Amino acid sequence: MNTQVEALLKDQINKEFYSAYLYLAMSNYYYGENLDGFGHWFEVQAREEQEHAMKILKYLQDNGVKVELAAIAAPGADFSDYRAPLTAALKHEQYVTSLIHAIYKQARDSDDFRACQFLEWFVAEQGEEEKSTADLIAKFDLLGGDAKGLYLLNAELKNRA
User: Fold this and answer.
1) Residue 20 burial (C-beta neighbours within 10 Å; 0-12, 13-18, 19+)
2) What is the distance, to the nearest Å, from the Cα of residue 31 to the centroid of all Cα atoms in its chain?
3) What are the residue ranges of helices labelled H in 33-110?
4) CA 131 to centroid of chain Cα atoms
5) Number of domains comprising the chain
6) Which CATH number characterizes residue 60's domain?
């Protein structure tokens, strides 16, 4: 495995766990606002980020790489309104996409074909993550300030697995 790809993947494990912490903070915000559906949606996102971190960790282990875990930074969780966590989540997903692309580029440039194949799943996943978050923002924005619409969207999110 290319040493630069290895270093980037090790760092990405930490970034994925940070993403889980960030989404837990967002979930906590919504639960505190009695918007349990939004809270649940972000809980699901947090679990997915943990799974991503574990997938990278397992890939490195399977390739004989010793991984030392670093401290995970505390996320900021001061949101001004119900929309703020949604837009912060989309911005964060776009950032994570840029990180995945950088790792993929390094793997490609160093002819690390196995890493490229492994990372293709993450490239596709990031497209889905960005779309899912953007779609939620679009639905939220359609509601405007309508309390009934917010209640219905919250209920819809609460029933998602």
Assistant:
1) buried
2) 19
3) 36-62, 84-109
4) 12
5) 1
6) 1.20.1260.10
The answer for residues whose C-beta is within 8 angstroms of residue 16's C-beta and 6 or more apart is 49, 50, 52, 53, 56, 96
Whole domain around residue 145: which residue ranges?
A: 3-69+80-158
| Residue 74, in any domain of the structure | no
What whole-number distance in Å separates Cα of residue 65 and Cα of residue 80? Answer: 42
Quick one: CA dihedral 43, 80, 139, 53, positive or negative? negative
Contact present, 61 and 39 (Cβ < 8 Å): no
Per-residue pLDDT 10s for the chain (161 aa) are: 999 999 999 999 999 999 999 999 999 999 999 999 999 999 999 999 999 999 999 999 999 999 999 999 999 878 999 999 999 999 999 999 999 999 999 999 999 999 999 999 999 999 999 999 999 999 999 986 788 888 889 888 988 75
